[in-house]
Structure to design on (241 residues):
């Protein structure tokens, strides 16, 4: 059995273990079933890179649309956001933090809340690509240009990032062994007494929605087609933690 991104307090993992069902999780488990073999992206480190990027471009009013706070990705990505702002000497403004549910509609609603609370936000870190699509929709509707007025970056590096305009976004992507294969391995490893953890490193991919200034005609689309990757930071971590 391979649960994906479980919520804190969800009893399913613990019940399956007690029933003797081999179990591995996709995403760091939290709560009662946290002692489970799992495969996860380094959510916190990926979020750090994502937030450092707009800071390097001179942006300081950086909002965030988080995942659900009772999920590992929601908690870890928000923690990375807070850590980088603090280390950069930028005060964490709670008005710039809104939660979402990893859906496009959740991202759109989160962006609207950010616009109402802090219309001067000049960058938004979005905790998933689907939510980033919703953020882009809300920003366009409000007349905010991306990236000239506000930079937008997501998380996952999924095919969804090339289906929107700007055609490509900034997304930390998990790199390493195929997660489905590793997930099966985690389920097998759960037969052991000590659960195993495989943490995949992340890679920052720069794309059109965070760059300063207007791109040349056709450039964003061309960059999306070719999936041009500028490896600003590639993090290595042990394959087995």
């Amino acid at each position: 059995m391979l649960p994906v991104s479980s919520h804190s307090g969800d009893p399913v993992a613990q019940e399956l273990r007690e029933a003797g069902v081999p179990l591995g999780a996709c995403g760091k488990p939290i709560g009662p079933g946290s002692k489970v073999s799992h495969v996860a992206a380094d959510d916190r480190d990926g979020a750090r890179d994502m937030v450092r990027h707009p800071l390097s471009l001179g942006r300081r009013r950086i909002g965030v649309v988080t995942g659900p706070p009772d999920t590992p990705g929601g908690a870890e990505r928000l923690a990375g956001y807070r850590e980088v702002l603090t280390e950069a000497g930028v005060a964490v403004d709670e008005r710039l933090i809104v939660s979402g549910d990893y859906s496009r509609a959740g991202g759109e609603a989160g962006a609207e809340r950010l616009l109402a609370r802090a219309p001067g936000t000049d960058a938004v870190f979005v905790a998933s690509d689907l939510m980033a699509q919703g953020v882009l929709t809300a920003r366009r509707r409000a007349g905010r240009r991306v990236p000239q007025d506000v930079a937008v970056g997501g998380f996952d590096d999924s095919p969804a990032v090339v289906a929107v305009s700007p055609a490509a976004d900034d997304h930390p992507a998990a790199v390493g062994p195929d997660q489905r294969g590793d997930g099966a391995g985690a389920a097998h490893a759960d037969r052991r007494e000590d659960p195993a953890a495989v943490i995949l490193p992340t890679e920052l991919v720069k794309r059109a929605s965070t760059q300063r200034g207007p791109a040349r005609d056709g450039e964003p689309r061309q960059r999306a087609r070719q999936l041009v990757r500028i490896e600003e930071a590639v993090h290595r971590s042990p394959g087995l933690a």
In short: The first helix runs from residue 12 to 18.
